[in-house]
Each structure stands twice: as C-alpha cells, then as structure tokens.
Amino acid sequence: MRIQRTLFAAALAATLSGLTTPAPARADVSVSVSFFHQQLAPHGRWVSAASYGEVWIPGSVAAGWAPYLDGEWLYTDYGWTWVSDDPWGDIAYHYGTWAWADPYGWVWVPGTVWAPSWVTWAYTDDYIGWAPVPPSFVLSVGGYSGRPIVVSETRYVFVPARQFVGVRVSGVRVAPRQNAAIFRRAAKATSFQVSNGIVRTAGLPSERVAKAAGRTIERVSITRARTQPTAFAQGGFGNAKSIPVVAPKRDRVKAAPAPRSEAARAPREAPKPNATNRQPAKPQAAIRERGETRPAPKPQSEKAEREVRPPAPVQAHASAPKPHASAPKAHASAPKPHASVSKPHASAPKAKPQSGSRPDTRKHDKKPETRKHDTKPETRKHDTKK
C-alpha cells in the first residue's frame, strides 16, 4: 500500500514538473532583421528615421494608439508575456522595441533578441502601467536588475490593477490624461532575467498582482502566447557580453536591400524617355527630306534667267555670218524685237540702234554690227530680198 502511494506521488510530481517546465527554445528558428523586413512589409511601411535609422510603422492603427495596447498579459514560464491581437505582434512585441519619432509617431526599431515583452514598469496599489524600453537599452548575458528605466509619463499605458491579467487592455485602459497623477506616486521597476541564453521578463511582483486581483495568478505555457522563445546565439549574440535590445545600425541598414534596390532601379528605367526621344527624329527626317526638295525651285530660277538672258542669236551675231542663218529661229520667239532691229539696218547707217530692244543694245555694246556693216553682209541680204 505504501509502495503504491509512493509511486502515485512520484508520478504526480513528475507530471506537475512537466507542466511547469518551460518549453525549450527552438534551434531551427531563423532570426534576422531582413526576415522581419519581409514579414512586416505587408502590414506597414519602412522608413528611415534620423535618430533610429531603418524603422517600421504599423498601418491601420487607431488615433491614440500605443504599443502593448491591443492584447492581454499572461504570466508564463518566461515571466510577464504580452499576447498581441495584431497579426504582426509575434515579431514587434518580442523582438526590438518601440520609440516615438517625429513626425511618424510610434515606430518599431528592429532587434534580434527575444523576450516575453520589452517593457519597463510603473505601478501603485490601484494601477499598473508599462512602457516600451528605449532603443538604447542594453542588458548583460546575466540579465538586468539595475536602476529602473524611466521614460516620459505620456508613453505609459495604465490599467486598474485588478484588471491586469487575462483582460483586453484596450477595453480597460485608463484615460491618458490621468497618467501624470498616477505616475507621480508610482513605483518604477525594470528587470530581466536570463536562463540558458533566453530572456525572461520580471520587475512586476506577481504577489502584488495577485493581491490586487483577489485571486491566484496561474502560470501558463508560453505556447498560449503564440510566440516561440529564441536564445542569444540565434540572434547573433552567442559570444557577446552585452545584449542590446535593438540590432546594430549597420545590420539594420544591410537588412533593407529591397527598398533601396527599388529606388536604385528607377534610374535604370530612364531608357524609356530615350525611346520617346527617338520619335522626334521622324520630323527631323522629314525636314531633311524637305531640305532635299528645296533645290527643286532652282529650275524655275534657271528658266527665269533664260527668259531674262539674251536669246541665242546674240552669240550668232557675235560669230561669223554663217551662224546668223539660225538667228531667225531664235528671233521667232521674239519677232517684235527682231523687226525693230531690221528697220535700222534697212535705213541709212546713220540711224541709231537705240530704238531697238535691250538685246539689240547689248549687240551694239559689243559692236558686232559694226563688223557686219564693215563686211556689208546685211546689205546683200536686204538687196536680195528686194
């Protein structure tokens, strides 16, 4: 009988110890800022804040929103754990931290070290409040239990102490205008413990919470928080002596290649305007073609020159009498001037050729007729005609 009781007690102890043993950290979980970039991009936007570098801004949040507001607190194997209602809460509330950055408001600064929550506490007998630790926060490989980290009172979210555990915070939050009065008389605490390379959130005594709630605070499994613990080594701090809550700035810059590459691709698309610039080449070609056709009026100018230029008989008169026989054909196009020319020849040599047309004047300037009258070829022709 005693043996049965002993065996039963041993089995019960083993069962209870199994329920309270924290779940081991998964070694196959990949933790990197670049991975967070990909996962959070659909739920917000990444920007570069001058004070913090590459940060993430959640989308579709209500006015007056603050981190650690849409969700509830649970007391798990790893301490006070935040259970978020946001689809991105498994990253932004367990890695990195939040900061207020003008003009964006609340922004998330990436980190690769896991914790149940990254908050600092302020509490009284009636109220419990918390705020994100600043990006400058650093803990050692053994944890942090130094002076409380205190931030601006406006950054805290307060709830009644009796409604702290297992209650949706957004429904019981104290009006922010009461923060100053509560904050002045509140005790401040910041504490993180480290076991097997995994951070645990402390600082707020569970006994105080149980007293305010009037009931025992049940410790639950981390699996209920929909998050998986990871050790320092998985976040890239295997041999480090100090652990920053946010990733080094150089790592955060390297982790954002996608937005930078898209911005860099914009100049590569510049050839499109070049393609459009080729279209004006058609008018230029047309202009060239028109330039080639512009010499077409030249024949007209040549014709005009031919009309103004003396007829071919000018050269005939300047030559021997034989070419003069073709003169009537050239003068046939202009019979009137030719008739005026024949009259002076028919009259006495004293008659001046000025009464003739311009071509006759040019002939007399060249003095071809003088030679003809010397040879008297025209006298013979006129004699024969008579």
Which properties best describe this structure?
alpha+beta; single chain; disordered N terminus; 386 residues; 4-stranded antiparallel beta sheet; 17 helices; 3-stranded antiparallel beta sheet
Please tell me about this protein's structure.
This protein is an alpha+beta fold and 386 residues long. 38% of the residues lie in helices and 18% in strands. It has 17 helices and 15 strands. Strand 1 (44-49) and strand 2 form a beta hairpin. It starts with a helix and ends with a helix.
Question: What does the secondary structure layout of this molecule look like, with pairings?
Answer:
Blueprint: H1 2-20, H2 33-40, E1 44-49, E2 53-58, E3 71-76, E4 79-84, H3 89-92, E5 97-101, E6 105-109, E7 119-123, E8 127-132, E9 138-140, E10 143-144, E11 157-160, H4 169-172, H5 179-184, E12 187-189, E13 191-195, E14 198-202, H6 206-213, E15 242-244, H7 249-254, H8 257-268, H9 271-277, H10 281-293, H11 298-308, H12 313-318, H13 327-332, H14 335-346, H15 358-366, H16 368-375, H17 377-385
Antiparallel strand pairs: 1-2, 3-4, 5-6, 7-8, 7-12, 8-11, 9-15, 10-13, 13-14
